[in-house]
Design brief:
Layout: H1 3-8, H2 33-37, E1 43-45, E2 64-67, H3 141-150, H4 175-184
Antiparallel strand pairs: 1-2
Length: 198
């Protein structure tokens, strides 16, 4: 299959599809795999064919296919679909990591294997680290820039795209949230502490 043929079959609802690095087993009910994968996977940044609207040209943006917190792809793959011996994702990080906030095997219960369940896609979601907005396992300058782009000030509501920046869950992205980002700051490539906000 040529590259352009894949993108043309992408669901219109979203400009991204979940790569089936950890495919789901067939379902026995009426919901097809296509319907499951048409849900927004909550990538850090969705792929885009660029301003010309065509894949395979210089302005293509292949996105950041790492999963954000709350992605329906976390702990939703099939352990049996993983090739034997594959224990890391494309970042070289452990492939089988449990996310306590995600339901294991929600689309085909009892068919995904023994926990921890692999995530769907090429990247395993890291443990949720407050302030790690790009989900790369650290809190660094990139995350600080992501916070600043969404900062609103006290009691000023934020847009839905910025909800993850509201670390204290009070409806804004203000100095209190910035304080959490500061406490959790680890630096580029240095693993963040999931308990840093405590």
């Amino acid at each position: 299959m040529q590259r352009g043929q894949f993108e043309e079959k992408r669901p219109a609802k979203h400009d991204a599809t979940v790569q089936k690095a950890a495919a789901h087993p067939p379902r026995s009910d009426a919901v097809s795999d296509l319907e499951l994968l048409a849900d927004d996977p909550l990538f850090v940044r969705n792929p885009s064919p660029g301003t010309d609207g065509q894949w395979g040209t210089p302005d293509d943006d292949y996105g950041n296919l790492r999963l954000q917190a709350g992605s329906p792809c976390i702990d939703a793959g099939s352990n049996a679909a993983m090739p034997a011996g594959v224990i890391t994702d494309l970042d070289g990080k452990p492939r089988f990591v449990d996310d306590p906030a995600s339901l294991d095997c929600p689309y085909a219960p009892d068919t995904c294997g023994t926990a921890p369940i692999v995530d769907m896609g090429a990247y395993e979601a890291p443990p949720c680290i407050p302030g790690d907005f790009d989900r790369d396992g650290d809190v660094d300058a990139d995350d600080m820039a992501a916070f600043i782009s969404c900062s609103s000030g006290p009691a000023i509501p934020i847009s839905s795209e910025c909800n993850l920046r509201d670390l204290d869950k009070d409806g804004d992205a203000d100095v209190d949230d910035f304080g959490i980002v500061q406490r959790c700051y680890s630096g580029q490539g240095i693993p963040g502490d999931p308990n840093c906000a405590n």
